[in-house]
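Researcher: For the record, we're logging two predictions in this thread. I'll number them. Prediction 1 follows.
Model: Prediction 1, sequence and structure:
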Amino acid sequence: MSKLVAPSVLPAVVALIVLCACTTPARGGDDYTAFVYAGCSQGRYDPGSQYAADVDTALSSLVNSAGFTAYANYTSPPSAASTGQLVGVYQCRSDLPAAVCGVCVKSAVSKLSSLCNTAAGAAVQLRACFVRYGNDSFLGKQDTTVLFKKCSGENAGDTGVVAMRDAALGALVAAAAPADEGSYRAGAAGYVQAMSQCVGDLGAKACTDCVSAASSQLKAGCGYASAGEVYLGKCYARFWSNAGGGTGTGGGVPVVGGGAGTAGGGNVIGGGGGVGGAAGNGYAYGGFVPNTYGQHDESGKTLAIIIGLVAAVAIVIVFLSFLRRAGGVGGKS
């Protein structure tokens, strides 16, 4: 009698399917560690100094906390040195699992170490988290300076998208502010969705004011774009259309140092040249251009297609091997 199953082959099939599921990259919108911007202070500290030790301790403390809560801050003990107390803070999107926050903050700290080595103050924004440290007493203070802005997917003359965008962004401003973990907010109107996130050291009113400033930036600066995002010193806001307009790079305007309605210096990132920091925030952006999400998304899609094709070929080979072995077993019965 023929045997229809070759048990020795099944574990290989199961293992291959699990491997494919684990190695397929997340979609661009779900790549929580995608780089947005970073800034480094002009001031430097000496390696081996007490300040260097404080920076290491602060960043380690933030990484250790990120697996448990969406927001935390660290303040170094008082020191006799003239550098002042060091403060570190991180903020993750508070709607995401703690495990995602932990991975994001760890990646952000790694980027700070490579991009802003020995900088007395620095900040980095990834897709799902923000990390900053410095001795400039920024904790609990409002900051609506524009650090990065991008609009994409132009829909010329589509007033419907504009109306829905404005309504979705208005919903963010009107949303009730949670009392902790940075006040994540979401809004929608028609097929346009929006979200915002404040840093957790802001109170409810200050968060609302920051989100209002971010929304105003998007309304004024993104025209008929089907997607846009703006990052201020203490909050950010995004909107996107689900009507097929996409979130490509067309019309993207990375802005550092201000824009309409802000106190920044109005610097626009050019083709790789160094740019100055926003007025009064102590940062000088060191000549690297923030990655755009459209570029990142396309590379991720390409990789996913390649992995999918390789996996499909491997599954076919394993399946043919299974049939051959099953036929051999049946022939011997």
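Researcher: Logged. Prediction 2.
Model: Prediction 2, sequence and structure:
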Amino acid sequence: MAYRFLSSRIVPSSNRLSRRFIFIFTISLCFMYLCYSILFCSGTIMPSQRLEDHRCVHLKNMGSKKLLQKSHYCTISAKARVLSDETRAVGLLNLTGNQSKHSAFQKTQDVVDHKQSNNSNSPKYGNKKLPNALIVGVKKGGTRAVLEFIRIHPDVRALGTEPHFFDRNYDNGLEWYRGLMPRTLDSQITMEKTPSYFVTREAPRRISNMSRETKLIVVVRNPVTRAISDYTQTLSKKPDIPSFEDLAFKNRSQGIVDTSWNAIRIGMYILHLENWLQYFRLSQIHFVSGERLITDPAGELGRVQDFLGLKRIITDKHFYFNRTKGFPCLKKPESSSQPRCLGKSKGRTHVQIDREVIEQLREFYRPFNVKFYEMVGHDFRWD
């Protein structure tokens, strides 16, 4: 009745069509306002995100002149979306209780972690660090065995190959050297082994320049046996080389040994050690017996672990003796169907050398050995 009364006052009765139009137009405006309010309040500014995505797709199809612009714009958009997700989660934290706080934070972390996992530059566990310890020698002494045995310790990460940084590749710089190392956690030790360091005159100074606190491991062996093993390895690669006797002596009848031959010179341990002691304390150098490494690997590795400040985890239960190779091997790990033994080049049969030649070399090495025993405070019983 009120509507008819008002309409009769405002609009003449003869103009009923105009009255109906005004009514329908008013209702339409109200409906449009209601729809717009619902859309705005529900946060449907999402089309702007789709617009950004559309721009990225559109720019990808443009010429090379837009390549840099495309890359920069889309990267910023992606970061903005991650920040938007984090902002929404922070909003949830302010509106909910303790349980909701944890849930919202976890969702935020899931979003960020997912974004990072799709990024090829996402951080990995640990860092590449310069080594804390080095196996510096000696060749054919048992360095590979020590490396393979000690690296099963959970607190040791070791480079498998020999980098030869301090003798051949020093000009590449420390950052190049660091880049070769495996990633380690703060609680882990980084190691590498290059046996030629021990006989390289510049190596002690260079290692000291890297860190004066570096721990050094030297695996030593009866110098006569070591020389024969060295020759056997070379002969397997170069079958046409002269005989062991011809290389070892300048004058066999007079017993004059050729100390310029590397296979002989390496075994003069005291001469090389004196060079190292100019830069490192004797307490920083641990000597492993190559002979006891074969007969008692757990005992030798126990002392290595002590020297490195590690808990004694590697014990007798990790080893068994391979009679075919004449070497200890690591027992089969849970993740493997085979035990771990050293390669075919380890434990090969030595070349037969005349007994008199061996005795002459023992006499030659005896004074060097005695001085070495006195210097390190241990008798290796090679004589």
